[in-house]
Every structure is written in structure tokens, then in C-alpha cells.
Amino acid sequence: MTSTELRVRAEEAIRRYLADTRIEAEEYPPGGFFLHLPGTHKPEVGVHLLVRERTLLVECFVMRAPEDAREDVYRVLLRHNSATYGLRYVLDELGDIFLMGAVPLEAVSEDEVDRLMGCAITYADEVFPALVNIGFATAGEQERRFRERLAPGTTA
Q: Is the pTM of this model over 0.85?
């Protein structure tokens, strides 16, 4: 199969997956898709898919660069990396945290897209509260104190 045929087949698999799941998404030709996955801890998990020459690139923003305890945040991410499928936690040049992965186009199917989206939502959403608690502890404590001053006894 030629690389053009593989790209077309991968894009069609993504479109079928989106039609079957009714996930909100935008398509950005050539070969780009942005999916809006509903989160539990995060309101939304955005996933960018890009069909390239030989691979499907998957990228998902997790959290901006931590302000506190960076080493502890990175330790959590590295431990999680040892048990992830298809996606790994990475940092950009600003220290923001992403999930990234690349899958050979030959492996792209509706089932594989579903598996990768399940991983993206799980990895981005489930670890989010712990990362925020560690990486933004100072800001969280300041917010708690501010709320206490406004209405003593309430910390929500």
C-alpha cells in the first residue's frame, strides 16, 4: 500500500470513529483533527491528531508548567510513563506537560483510535488533580486562605 493510500485509509478510520462516537471535533486538512473529549477532573481534554507521511501523531495538553515542586511532578509523570500505552508524558520548551505518541499508519483503525482516545482521556484527566496539588500547592493554599477570609468555614 502506498503512503498516500495509508494516509487516506487512516483519515477515513478517524472520520468513522468520530461519526460512530459523536465526539465533537474539527478537521483541519491536510490530515489534522482536533477532538474535544469530556473530562471528569478537567472540563475538557483536547486531543490533536495529525496524519503524517508514515505515522499518526497524537498530542494532548495536560497542564501548564508547574510552579512548585517540579521534580516531584516530573517523578509522578515518569512513573506513569512506564505503564502507558501509545502515549508518553513530555515537556515542551516552556515546561508545559503534554501527552504525545506516534502510531504507524498501518496500525490506524477505528479500534486503535478508540484505544488511543481512551488512553488520552485517562492519562490526562486522572492524573490531573495530583499534578495540580503538587505543582500548584502554593497557589492552592493562597486560594484556600482567600476563600476562608470571604466566608469562614468554606473551602470549596
A: no
